[in-house]
């Protein structure tokens, strides 16, 4: 008797994660055919459910996890053995089952894929130069979705009935557009209201053009035209804040900037963030205006991510067939900055664009597909050989952060600056897109709209709301008005907790919070903290020595004031008038410092950076948050350490010897000395507390690559791994995740 070595078996398989709207069912259908399996697959409220039967289910299951579609994110695969069905033949894709509350999620918006790009530039194809080409592997997701389930009627594509050709593609399991909800073509899809050739002609002529994108409008102009760039800066009241730039291809990016494989992967990935890269020394090709990023050692660079973006460069290249032109010099680069004048939310509507951008843009490019969710460009840089998000928005939202197990549903409302909100569902936390600073009524409305949209698409009702300790933050006031139990979370506890959540650390862990401002437990100003965090408990192990802030909040915008405070503490008040007389009545400022009037103390790491900048003459006044520290980092070439440049006493780290040494140094020399000594001081300070093998680095100062890479290396020399935020920003954009993490531990303790 011959025994079949591979008997027929049957399994029910549950796939959890981001597995809907990404071509997962056609992938399963194709995979089953390759392995000679029968069965079925469907979408339901938990993700994807399938049954497979045959002689090689093990190989199929391995491929299911490791060969998933590019936009899929498989979190977990659960397998249950079943009795074989001898009557079954073939493999089918079944209709979705929508019973019960949704536990899946929509995907983020994704850059146009290579297949769609080839279609876009195929003169023989029916989607040649169509600005809205997409498939299951690319295109809009989050920004067009009104509610779940993620089906066309629930999106802003609901008003575009499919033509017969698109309907056939949509219904064909062998087509990459099978159940692609935004599917469209020139016969049935959205339409651009201005021809591409006119847009490019206006850009070439030096005009500022507002262009509707995935999550909002951009303000675009020729990056090589210094006059237009200067005019855009003035109209947008951008001061010295850098502009992002878009180029056609990776090849073009390499002609402008120098970067490694990690930056290249970020630039070309489906998320397409703005990536900070170093400009090439000498003349750039294509040339760019000198004040795109004044006094900074990096440019914000991104590649096209919508078909319309590609069409702009295609038009500039003379409309060649195919995609080979993307590897050739083009000499055309665009400034692409968010269209949100005056610190207001991103513009998304056509009528809204006419009203709010009419005084800035010479031309407004609209189309008839609505943007449902505002979402700015994400921003990232490579630190320590891996990406770090500076702003988390388009391309990453609403991907969840796994929390290691089921948690209660909570809402966290973030802080005041760089606000995001976060909600938990099941075993994941979902952060919103970057919302901005909660400084006016329109931003507050955006904040409230985002909370409503997030809770709607998640289909959760939070049992509690977490917020910052500061009572005057608009986010705090909103939380208190919701009628839910409130859980206040200290600012730097939340910073450390956000990184703990990202890495799945729930037990006691030591963290360095290196930040600009956060209200302490006693209403004091903090920002350079050594903490031990254990769930909802936070113990302060140490802090930076306090510095006076002459003029209070004004000191954060005027680094010369922090430098004056440092000189006063060094008993060198006589130098203040000599150095800073041009800024007004220095005698009055000295009197304020002498008497402690309107000079609240702060332990902020950011204010120590400001003091260094003021002493070195790097920046006496800041045009935007963090400008002085960014310029100081840009000056660093080789960090050096000042022996005896700090003291540690009773957990207090004092850097006054370092500031004293900076007084007479050239800016570049001082930048090297400040960064090198600060790194050495922080490692020395934190080592006794970091008893385990890990330490968390968090707070806005961690986005300084020189500082963070120095800390990673410094702790590594002592056998300690520094955990650095990667999936969420180190700055206040990550606060809401930390607040949510603390809140769920408060509820389950």
List keywords for this structure.
749 residues; alpha/beta; Alpha-Beta Plaits; Nucleotidyltransferase, domain 5; 7-stranded mixed sheet; 31% helix; 20% strand; globular
Number of strands: 30
Over all CA atoms, what is the radius of gyration? 27 Å
> What is the approximate shape?
globular
Stretches where pLDDT falls below 50 for ≥5 residues? Answer: none
Largest sheet: 10 strands, mixed
Helix content: 25-40%
Assembly form of the protein? single chain
Description:
Among the domains are: 85 residues, Alpha-Beta Plaits (2-Layer Sandwich), CATH 3.30.70.100; 184 residues, Alpha-Beta Complex (DHBP synthase), CATH 3.90.870; 182 residues, Nucleotidyltransferase, domain 5 (2-Layer Sandwich), CATH 3.30.420. It is built from 23 helices and 30 strands. Strands 6, 7, 8, 9, 10, 11, 12, 13, 14 and 15 form a ten-stranded mixed beta sheet that branches. The chain has a seven-stranded mixed beta sheet with strand order 27-28-24-23-22-29-30, with helices on both faces. Strands 16-19-18-17-20-21 form a six-stranded mixed beta sheet, with helices on both faces. The longest helix is centred in the last third of the chain and has 20 residues. The radius of gyration is 27 Å and the shape is globular.
Summary, kept brief:
With 749 residues, the protein is of the alpha/beta class.
In terms of topology, how is this protein built?
Blueprint: E1 9-18, H1 24-34, E2 38-44, E3 47-54, H2 57-66, E4 73-82, E5 91-93, H3 114-120, H4 164-171, H5 196-204, E6 209-212, E7 217-222, H6 226-235, E8 244-246, H7 250-256, E9 257-258, H8 261-268, E10 274-279, E11 299-302, H9 307-316, E12 334-338, H10 350-357, E13 363-365, E14 379-383, E15 386-391, E16 400-402, E17 410-412, E18 422-425, E19 428-431, H11 441-458, E20 464-468, H12 474-480, E21 486-489, H13 491-503, E22 509-519, E23 525-534, E24 537-544, E25 547-548, H14 554-557, H15 559-569, H16 574-580, H17 586-595, E26 601-602, H18 605-616, H19 627-634, E27 647-649, E28 652-654, H20 656-662, H21 667-686, E29 694-698, H22 705-716, E30 721-723, H23 735-748
